[in-house]
Amino acid sequence: MALGSEVVLTIASPGRMSGTVQVRGGAAPEEFSLAVLDETTGYRRHDSFFRTGGAWSVPDLPAGNYKVLVTAGGGTAEAHATMAAGKDTTGVRIELAPKVSVRGTVVDTDGKPIAGMQVYVSAPGVWSSSGDDEDKRNVTDEQGRYEVSNAPSGKVQVNVYPRSWGSDEFSWTSMPVMLSSDASVTELAPIKVARRRVKEGDKSGELGIKVKEPEPGADPLTRRLVVAYVRPGSPAAAAGVQIGDQIISVDGQDVTGANSYLYMGLTDVLEGTTVTLGLANGKSVPVTAGKAP
Known about the structure:
mainly beta
């Protein structure tokens, strides 16, 4: 395009998406929050509704394929709807799945229980979470045990935070979990939390690799950590790591699928620290972190 040439921009007309929300059994929630998300473009809207008889409407939406996420006191739900340019999408009916209780144990990467960690459960894309209660049952005890009441069901994120960010020896954790609404109480497998390998205020070293970002809408429970970039001259390049390699472990810790969240904490190390990357091809590659460029 030549400098100074005229450009005509065509802005597609937006549309309105509307529908109803009901609790399983037919009643409408008195109050609920709704988010619409187009994972391809990243476009997101969020709104709250009060005493609408379950009716909801979101105006001025661009065309796209949307995930509709709803949370209310009576439960949570996820639906999908398509918007065509300049067209309204109506009659999107959403039934809330009942909320559940979640129990489990938080441990370090050696399997030892961790006390004093806060556990919350949230539905992806919805700005609310379950966890805090007067008894602080969502805070792990000496055996690492916790319980979260009124947690959303379906695909959720279980978030684990230290109570004091700066001084705590553990990092935060957010892992994907599928919670069935058929059981009122679910016992999760132990949640591993990595110890901080770089103290607050210290500078991290660099391995020299980047892993491929997940595709929009990809299932986080099946994520694969595939090397997308190896910086020329980096420690990873010198160790023989190649684009396309799949990392399945770090220092013996599984980082596949639902455990992929551990990768960042285990590879955030000081300059001079050696980590061993286990690859899907059967190789174990020691990489010593260099100075970050």
